């Protein structure tokens, strides 16, 4: 579904992404891991249109989407979430979901005068869909709560809910477990798997929690120094000498020699 070819993103002399090439298969939940500074979030930002690449290409279903802005990618079904949830804190959880779909009739001044019936019908449909999404996420009891007053993990669930309000094809999740308690993290993991199996979502997940990655992701891609270092199952990744060296600074062979 997504193909990245020799992608670079430089900040002056710093090569945050330095020749990354990888593929994310349709229908997969792909994990993206690596040490801090490996270029994972920068790669997400380039794919999702938040940053232009220095060079290289990004393809979605064979179409060149390199450098397209986020709103165009949104309409193509490519969405992303952030390490820190971006909710509208004074609005309710339901309202946060209802405002996601674009092109609503109420956005046009003309319709507020002469299309009130159409606006009311759209709002009823959006409200029903938002309530369905909240129920799917098991947070329907928070529908009328201000989004800024719910927990960090519930905000991450709400972000997943936003992707359900449109026809998402692939969702990039940046450290979905950051600041989330263990119980709610497993709820988030179960929700991602359900969206994948029941609604056909493709996911790419940045996460440092290997238990979380192991529960939901196959394959797992490892980045180091701005490029792909390895790919495989989590067990294969854990046994990979280059991966161990990238994380720990020394490999098993060196450890054995020291021993």
SSE layout and pairing:
Layout: E1 2-11, E2 14-24, E3 29-33, H1 40-47, E4 55-60, E5 63-64, H2 70-76, E6 78-80, H3 93-98, H4 109-114, H5 116-136, H6 152-164, E7 170-174, H7 182-199, E8 202-206, H8 210-216, E9 220-224, E10 227-232, H9 234-238, H10 241-248, H11 252-258
Parallel strand pairs: 3-8, 3-9, 6-7, 7-8
Antiparallel strand pairs: 1-2, 1-4, 4-5, 9-10
Helix pairs in contact: 6-7
Question: Which key phrases capture this entry?
Answer:
single chain, 259 residues, alpha/beta, Rossmann fold, 2 domains, 6-stranded mixed sheet, 4-stranded antiparallel sheet, 11 helices, 10 strands, globular, disordered C terminus, nucleotide-binding, ABC_AA/LPS_Transport
Give a brief rundown of this model.
Helices cover 41% and strands 22% of the residues.
- CATH superfamily heading of the largest domain: P-loop containing nucleotide triphosphate hydrolases
Instruction: Summarize model confidence as the mean pLDDT.
Output: 89
* Uncertain regions spanning at least 5 consecutive residues: 251-259
Structural class: alpha/beta
Any idea what the radius of gyration is?
A: 20 Å
Q: Between the first and last Cα atoms, what is the distance in angstroms?
A: 45 Å
How many structurally independent domains? 2
* CATH class designation of the largest domain: Alpha Beta
Number of helices: 11
Reported by name, the CATH topology of the largest domain is Rossmann fold
Tell me the major beta sheet: 6 strands, mixed
Numbering strands along the chain, what is their spatial order in the largest sheet? 6-7-8-3-9-10
Strand fraction band? 15-25%
SSE order in H/E notation? EEEHEEHEHHHHEHEHEEHHH
User: Percent range for helical residues?
Assistant: 40-55%
